[in-house]
Specification:
By secondary structure, the protein is an alpha+beta fold. The protein has 2 domains: 104 residues, no CATH class; 114 residues, RNA Polymerase Alpha Subunit, Chain A, domain 2 (Beta Complex). It contains 7 helices and 12 strands. The strands form 4 sheets. It has a 4-stranded antiparallel beta sheet with strand order 1-2-12-9. The chain has a 4-stranded antiparallel beta sheet with strand order 3-8-4-6, with helices on one face. A hairpin with a 5-residue loop joins strand 1 and strand 2. The longest helix is centred in the C-terminal third of the chain and has 23 residues.
């Protein structure tokens, strides 16, 4: 496994992985998206709302705004009682109370835990005009993406890498140029690096093998994009730990 790119904001991580097969990569992908827990608004109590949006619409919008999650402080509820009793181990109380004219943003909400706030402060919730008010009490709960996508920490995908051979043949190029993406050209030349950079292997493969030859190799690009609740490293390391634990339990069952 090698690091290819990592964004400064830690919202994107790209790895080059070899020596594994697609079922394993798909398992890791699903572990990250479906098993790694995060906080998300689950229960919403409306004390006042005379805005243009129904209670259900505002509750739905609040539920889909990512919340910064500290996995060392919060964990999945062990029973329904943990949720009902608002256990501090898996829930956090938040509040949105305002009567200001204009757009109400996620940053207008408060949290009992300052470290667990909405990730994107400028995400709009509702717009108010004269004499309109919104007062909402929310409880964010730890959950998993397999229950609802609002708990998924991000997006993960992978693609098999390939060796690309480009023959700069002007006659062939004129025949198939209209079938190829314009972004891979520089004048009358095809840029192989652009095909890889823009992930256009499937687009160019088979169009004209004599001009562009694509040979897949035993290596994959594994990309992770965080929605802000957790860093990419946290997402991957947590998923790896959970997968190892599942493998251990399976081995014990089989024995």
């Amino acid at each position: 496994m090698k690091l290819v790119t990592k964004s400064r904001s830690d919202a994107r991580l790209v790895l080059s992985v070899s020596g594994v097969d697609t079922p394993f990569l798909n398992t890791v992908r699903r572990m990250v998206m479906e098993e790694v827990p995060t906080l998300a608004v689950e229960d919403v109590e409306f004390h006042q709302n005379n805005s243009a949006l129904y209670d259900e619409i505002i509750a739905h919008r609040l539920g889909l705004i990512p919340i910064k999650t500290d996995l060392s402080s919060y964990s999945l509820p062990t029973s329904e009682a943990d949720i009902v009793e608002r256990s501090a181990l898996c829930t956090v109380r938040m509040e949105l109370k305002t009567s200001s004219d204009g757009i109400i943003y996620a940053k207008d909400a408060t949290s009992d835990d300052p470290s667990s706030m909405f990730v994107y402060p400028d995400m709009p919730v509702v717009k108010l005009i004269n004499d309109q008010k919104v007062h909402v009490t929310m409880h964010a709960v730890m959950g998993q993406g397999k229950e609802h996508m609002k708990w998924s920490p991000g997006l993960v995908w992978y693609a098999q890498q390939a060796d690309i051979t480009v023959k700069q043949d002007k006659k062939l190029l004129e025949q198939v140029r209209h079938k190829l993406p314009t972004k891979i050209f520089s004048g009358d030349k095809i840029l192989a690096e652009k095909i890889v950079e823009l992930d256009l292997l499937d687009v160019v493969e088979g169009v004209c093998p004599e001009l562009i030859s694509v040979n897949y190799i035993d290596s994959y690009t594994f990309s992770i994009e965080s929605w802000g609740q957790l860093s990419c490293e946290e997402m991957l390391s947590t998923a790896a730990g959970m997968l190892a634990e599942k493998a251990k339990l399976l081995k014990e069952v089989l024995q």
